[in-house]
Structures are given as C-alpha cells and as structure tokens.
Amino acid sequence: MNDESQNIEYKRSWSDEYLKWVCGFANAQGGRIFIGIDDDKSVYGLTDSHRQMEDIPNKIVAFLGIVVDVNLHQRNGKEYLEIIVNPSNVPISYKGIFYYRSGATKQELKGAALQQFVLKKMGRSWDEIVCEGARMEHIDDEAVAYFVRKGIKAGRLPENAADDSTETILRNLDLIDDEGGLRNAAILLFGKRPSKFFACVEFKIGRFKSESDLRNQDMITGNLIQMADKVMEVLDNKYLIRPIHYEGLQRIEPLEIPEDALREIIFNAIIHKEYPGYSTQMRVYDDRIWLWNSGGLPDGITFEQFMGEHSSCPRNRLIARAFYLAGFIESWGRGIGKIRDEFVANGLEAPVYKEEMGGMSVYITRRKGLFGDDNTENDPVTDGVKVVDNESITIDNDPVNDPANDPVKITGSTFLVLRAIVDNPNLTYEEIQVIINRSRATVKRAIKILRINKYIVREGSDKSGHWYVTEKGQNYLQTHK
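^ thats the sequence. predicted structure below, dont judge the formating
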C-alpha cells in the first residue's frame, strides 16, 4: 500500500468525523480512505464491515449529497474497507462548512479562499461577480473612451466603436449581466473611484536606499485601464533614469529598463492580481526593483510551465479580455518570453520570477553605474556636466551653483523658477514669467531642465494639474538658499 498522501488516508475504524475528509477529497482531486488500517499500513481489521458497507455510503449521501464507492477487501484473514471519492464538479459542504484536501491536511475554507474556490467550481472568475451597489453613474466615460481609442488604434475594435454609448461598450465586453448589474470588472476597469467598492486596488511605489530607509513613495489609484500609463509616468519622472548618449548627432535617451518589457510586467501584475488581496507593491532600490502582486500561479500551471510556453490562464478573465482588446497584451501566454528576450537584447539580466508570500514577485536588476560612487542618487553625467538639448548647463560664474559639490548644474533663472514653483505649485508658465521677469522661452527652457533632472514633475493635466517638487528638488533648494 502507498503511504498517506494528498489522495490517501488510513483510519483504524470509522467515525462520522471522517465525513469531513470525504468532503475535502470531493472538493479537491478526489482520493481514497481505508478503514481498518493503521497509519503504518498494517491491517487492524473490522468486526462489522458488512454493516458499515451500508451505513457509510448512506451517511455520505445524506450529509454530503454525493455517491462514493465502498469496497470490501481482505488481507491475512482481516477485512478492511476502501472508500473511493471522486472529485466533484460542484462545491460540497458538510454541515454548511466547506473542506478542502491540501497536501496531507484537511483545511476549512473561509473568506477569500472560500470565495475563490466556489467561483472556480462554478467555472467563473471573481471579476465576473456583480458588484453590489454599482451603477452606471460610477463609470468614467473618459476611461471607456480611452479604451476605445486604444482598441481602434490596435485594430482590435472596429472604428465605429467610437460611436457606441458607454453602456453598449460595457455590454459588448460582458461587463453587465442579464439583469443590468455591473460586474466587478466594470468598476475595476472603468470606475471613477474603484476604491469606493474594493480595498487595496492601488499600486504602491516606494524609493528605498535600504530595506528600512524609505526616501519617497507614491500611491497610484483609479481605474485599471489607465493605471499602467500612470505607473509608467511616475516611474519615468521620479524613480527611473534615462541615461543620455549620442549616435552620431542624434541624442538618444532611452529609459534604463526596456519600456515595452516594463509595461508588460506592469500589465501582468494588474491583470493577474487577486483583487480581494493586498495592494500591488513596487520597491525601487539602487541596484534592483522588486514588484509583487497578490495571487499565486493559476491552478494547473507549474512554475516550470509558467516560465516556458504555456496557454493563457488569466485569473481575471474579463479584465484580461479588455486589456487584450485595448492592444495592451497578447492572448497566447507569451508575455514572459517576450519580456525575457527584450531584457537580454538590451544587455540586461532577465527578470527573476518567484511565487512567494501568497503572490508573484518579479526581481529586476538595474544597470550598474547609474549612481555615483558615494551611493547617492544622481542623474547620469558626462565629465561632471549635465547635458540637455546639446547645451552644457554648467555656468562657471553663476553664484547659485557649486561646481565642486553639485554634479547637476542649473542656471540662476532655472533656480528662480524652481523656487517659484515651491512657493505655488499651481503656477502657469505665464505666471512664472511675470514673477521672475524673464521671457517665455527662458521659462520654458528652465521647466524642461528641471523636469529632465527630476527636480519637478507634472501631476495631472496641463489645465487642471499642478507641479510637484521632488525630494531631489527640495534638497537642492535647501543646500542653495
């Protein structure tokens, strides 16, 4: 006989308590329970095996509603029973409690685990559930229009889709059920405030110098369909670097990490996240980036299969379909391979994936030499001089700068712009022009220098947004008062 395992259990005698084990096997991959055998696989024997052959199946039908095979065996003159439990295609409960066989243990399913289990048995994903209290007024028409524009551009939506109403688009995406209820995916993808209905929808980014030294952080909120754009913008403006080089006379300023591959990684984290779980988190260190989203590998996919060729098995089918139609992803499970190839083609180490802490982690190694020898964050420089638009910004006679200690040099006019923005982040170009008494061209050039050097970023639109002075910009002002 085989040892006790995920599919085998040995019991010396029958107890109604073992109905929980039958329930667990039925909810998992099925299994066998031997009655009359010790854990050491020696036959203990039964004195009333024929009665139990009738009682056990009847109790299983009465309490669990399933039919099992009960076989009588004999060894060395002693009888024992074999109960064969087949996996059920519907959820099975015992006295209102759902049990599940995992490894060699019996687990009671509760909360999010129970919800995911029931949905899986019903052949549905969590994003298909109707969101209680959600109405069309909670949908952002602009987000839907953004999706349509992307889909038409990618050739995955017809051009006349731009003429459809928001409700028609949602119905075509199966985001509204037959009774008119909005599904979870509708609010997550296109909601004005998804956090009103679901906790932990946000994407958290932090800049760390060490595990305990957090320098600054951002929380990206809002709908999922536009979240990747927002994350990429924040990463580009505040966390990652664009090393500058020239190919002939052409200025080349690529992001330190291949942008398409990074965007694909972010798409995967958003699509495959377990939304009843925790916030998606990205930690940016000097030498690496760590991204984690809750929810492990899909059932039936091993880690080896995940890293190689595999079919597409999205956790959230409706969300994944919308991302596909928008042209963001493919639907063939090729994302990991494409990411790896793009990193290698750019001379970078391929990202490392790990299933850990109830979710999936991606570890990205950053290029060496992005930071100074003192391990403080600086933008790439050439011979100590920051190059912007083919102009050297080092001004030897400018009292604002300290050439010996500040590798990134800005002019007096640029410093005045920075100080004005600190005083009022809502200033327009024209207002800055009046305050510092300089031409519009000078102000425009100063803003560009400050943004390239990541002293400031623009949050929101040109009309309704505002300026944000980064920690780097604040530190510069403190040291150059």
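The radius of gyration is 30 Å.
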